[in-house]
């Protein structure tokens, strides 16, 4: 199922929002919020890529950029190796036929005045054609609708087609939202925190459903989350973002088990872990990192964005921005500690070691 | 609020059987939403004891009544919430006991914040955006300590901010000038202003990222050791509770289904719902395994079926589970200090593996 060529890729993806607020003088240059800076991503068929980050790290902006919902400031999105330009209605519709998005809040993403049938048949009629050509209708439409509902495990389908969103539970609503995305037979699903608004006991049901779609239909999935444990559970590869930049990327298991970047280490050490109550190693990581908060993204200074909280930061970290450095095959970290520079900071190879 | 069932003033004459110095005892608390002929029973006969100095975790999914329990116990429940029965006994530092539900409004106003303080869920929306932090803390202190001079209250406010790790010059800030984590700390500082005995934290860190969550929790736990208050910690994140709480009460559909020491809930859950809830959080370390969550969805409280509310989702449901409501009682293993409301434990048959370890 896995092909080597990515279905959807982003190179140097950058988004700057214009900052509002007062200007000191009318002539002063507009300030920009650097929401996303130089992010590279690759989504492959039948694989899940998780983007993990805290609120404000730019992870949702990445999803919106990839979905073509907001214009890109700089960089490129490639679909099957071809640069994407979603200018105009037709181009946009052709693009979303292949790249669909699932939103965080199924309470808000479904139109409350339309029953399930309308929501899904509308998507089907927009994106699919009758076998004889022309718009999908009649028995074929009905069959497609039933098949969609069955695909997201809402069976018997007849029980759900005439329901309104308010008659469904959160998990069922999210399944309808997923079914709507599947109506287009997409190659890529962009899932922006698809489970964070749901009851905890049904979250895994949704993740397992998405994993099932990945395996059966070979869809490439981008999974945006703040929960690194769920990224480990669900995603094949994980990219960690902080303050608009990629900090680390690699296969999910090693990113969570042997994190390289000091930020990832802090993130992993901060996650609740009932199995490690003594948690000496984790506590040591936390103690070592200085407290504080993500930097302001309004015209941020050069250097690593994590530098002011990093226990190992040196002058080079504060003045020059590190690119992703390949540490071992398939694993990269944007940290000067892994560079070959003379003046690199001394980041220990594994955590728990003395600082 | 015509909440009290008792008519005499809420000072107890007999102390009753006290289990290890309780500071807050909730007895048979029931809450309905709606005034009509067909109200929704959101809490049914909930009893819970908070011991002095302990961190009690309330776990459960959204809509299971954990916040309702906290607000009802402090009489903060807004209409259409209505307390229909029960008692909430608060033991003061001097050993005097009072039923919060039968206090007069003036007594209640005095007891709130001084004895019980709450850190609300959304710190962003709990602070008044048009006043500086200083004014909000000082006003609160002066309302309870009318004889204190404003200058003293101001010093106290500065001290409180330092207590939660914010520099005192932030007193002059407006809420929007603080980050989410700082606002949450300000809320905690305010809650501690009058050195309450009980601190109720309602999902205090849900809106924060994990690093900030960890910092704030460690701070609260350190303050608790220093100042000696008890904490009721409400969250849906069981794995977090296992770390911070001494004891955990698991709620489902407006009832407590299991209480036990935090460690025991994690390693040896006794209620199928607790076991399912624990299986809903993928572990960050250890072996990767397939998890399923819990099939189905939480029940609609306005259309209760007879029997155990968890029965439709329970993999071990028996016939009796669909007809009879289980009561909180001892586990089949007869362990001390833990209670479970499940027919499996009274049926006498061997327990399924996931609740029988």
UniProtKB/TrEMBL annotation, chain A:
Keywords: ATP-binding, Nucleotide-binding, Transport. Pfam families: ABC_tran, oligo_HPY. Residues 277-301 are annotated as: Disordered. InterPro entries: AAA+_ATPase (IPR003593), ABC_transp_ATP-bind (IPR050319), ABC_transporter-like_ATP-bd (IPR003439), ABC_transporter-like_CS (IPR017871), Oligopep_ABC_C (IPR013563), P-loop_NTPase (IPR027417). Transmembrane segments: none annotated. GO terms for molecular function: ATP binding; ATP hydrolysis activity. Residues 8-268 form the ABC transporter domain. GO terms for biological process: peptide transport; transmembrane transport. SUPFAM superfamilies: P-loop containing nucleoside triphosphate hydrolases. Gene3D superfamilies: P-loop containing nucleotide triphosphate hydrolases. The keyword Transport applies. This is Dipeptide/oligopeptide/nickel ABC transporter ATP-binding protein.
From TrEMBL, chain B:
Keywords: ATP-binding, Cell membrane, Membrane, Nucleotide-binding, Transport. Residues 26-278 form the ABC transporter domain. CDD domains: ABC_NikE_OppD_transporters (cd03257). One of its GO terms (biological process) is peptide transport. Coiled coil: none annotated. Belongs to the ABC transporter superfamily. This is Dipeptide/oligopeptide/nickel ABC transporter ATP-binding protein. It comes from Promicromonospora citrea. The lineage of its organism: Bacteria, Bacillati, Actinomycetota, Actinomycetes, Micrococcales.
């Amino acid at each position: 199922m896995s092909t080597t060529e990515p279905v959807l890729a982003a190179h140097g993806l950058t988004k700057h929002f214009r900052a509002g607020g007062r200007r000191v003088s009318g002539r002063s240059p507009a300030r920009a919020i650097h929401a996303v800076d130089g992010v590279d991503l690759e989504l492959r068929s039948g694989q899940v890529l998780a983007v993990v980050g805290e609120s404000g790290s730019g992870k949702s902006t990445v999803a919106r950029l990839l979905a073509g919902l907001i214009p890109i400031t700089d960089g490129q999105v490639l679909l099957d190796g071809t640069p994407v330009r979603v200018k105009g209605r037709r181009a946009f519709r052709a693009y979303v036929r292949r790249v669909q998005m699932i939103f965080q809040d199924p309470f808000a993403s479904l139109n409350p005045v339309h029953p399930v049938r309308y929501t899904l048949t509308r998507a089907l009629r927009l994106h699919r054609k009758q076998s004889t050509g022309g718009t999908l209708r009649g028995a074929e439409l009905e069959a497609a609708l039933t098949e969609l509902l069955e695909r997201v495990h809402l069976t018997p389908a007849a029980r759900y087609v005439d329901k309104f969103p308010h008659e469904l539970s959160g998990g069922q609503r999210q399944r309808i939202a997923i079914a709507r995305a599947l109506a287009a037979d997409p190659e890529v699903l962009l899932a922006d925190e698809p489970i964070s608004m749901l009851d905890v006991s049904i979250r895994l049901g949704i993740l397992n459903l998405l994993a099932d779609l990945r395996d059966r239909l070979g869809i490439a999935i981008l999974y945006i989350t703040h929960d690194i444990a769920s990224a480990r559970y669900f995603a094949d590869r994980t990219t960690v973002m902080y303050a608009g930049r990629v900090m680390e990327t690699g296969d999910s298991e090693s990113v969570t088990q042997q994190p390289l970047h000091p930020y990832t280490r802090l993130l992993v050490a901060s996650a609740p872990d009932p199995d490690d109550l003594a948690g000496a190693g984790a506590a040591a990581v936390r103690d070592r990192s200085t407290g504080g908060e993500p930097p302001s993204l309004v015209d941020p200074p050069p250097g690593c964005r994590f530098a002011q909280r990093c226990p190992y930061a040196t002058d080079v970290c504060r003045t020059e921005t590190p690119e992703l450095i390949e540490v071992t095959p398939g694993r990269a970290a944007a940290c000067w500690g892994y560079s070959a520079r003379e003046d690199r900071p001394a980041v220990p190879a594994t955590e728990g070691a003395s600082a | 609020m015509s909440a009290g069932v008792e008519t005499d003033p809420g000072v107890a004459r007999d102390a009753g059987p006290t289990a290890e110095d309780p500071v807050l005892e909730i007895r048979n608390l029931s809450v309905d939403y709606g005034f009509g002929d067909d109200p929704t029973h959101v809490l049914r006969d909930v009893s819970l004891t908070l011991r002095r100095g302990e961190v009690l975790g309330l776990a459960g999914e959204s809509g299971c009544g954990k916040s309702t329990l906290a607000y009802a116990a402090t009489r903060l429940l807004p209409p259409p919430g209505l307390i229909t029965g029960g008692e909430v006994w608060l033991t003061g530092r001097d050993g005097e006991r009072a039923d919060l539900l039968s206090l007069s409004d003036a007594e209640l106003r005095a007891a709130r914040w001084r004895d019980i303080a709450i850190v609300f869920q959304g710190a962003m929306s709990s602070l008044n955006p048009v006043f500086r932090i200083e004014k909000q803390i000082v006003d609160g202190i002066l309302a309870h300590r009318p004889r204190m001079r404003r200058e003293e209250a101001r010093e106290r406010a500065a001290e409180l901010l330092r207590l939660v790790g914010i520099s005192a010059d932030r007193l002059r800030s407006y809420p929007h000038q603080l980050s989410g984590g700082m606002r949450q700390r300000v809320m905690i500082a305010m809650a501690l202003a009058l050195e309450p005995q009980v601190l109720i934290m309602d999902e205090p860190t849900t809106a924060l990222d994990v690093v900030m969550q960890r910092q704030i929790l460690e701070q609260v736990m350190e303050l608790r050791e220093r100042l000696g208050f008890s904490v009721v910690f409400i969250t849906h994140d069981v794995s977090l509770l296992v770390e911070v709480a001494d004891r955990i009460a698991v709620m489902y559909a407006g009832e407590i289904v299991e209480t036990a020491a935090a460690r025991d809930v994690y390693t040896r859950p006794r209620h199928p719902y607790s076991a399912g809830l624990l299986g809903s959080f993928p572990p960050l370390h250890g072996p990767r395994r397939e998890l399923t969550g819990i099939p189905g969805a939480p029940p609609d409280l306005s259309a209760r079926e007879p029997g155990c509310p968890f029965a439709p989702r329970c993999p071990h449901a028996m016939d009796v589970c669909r007809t009879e409501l289980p009561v909180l009682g001892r586990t089949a293993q007869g362990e001390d200090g833990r209670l479970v409301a499940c027919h499996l434990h009274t049926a006498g048959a061997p327990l399924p593996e996931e609740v029988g370890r």
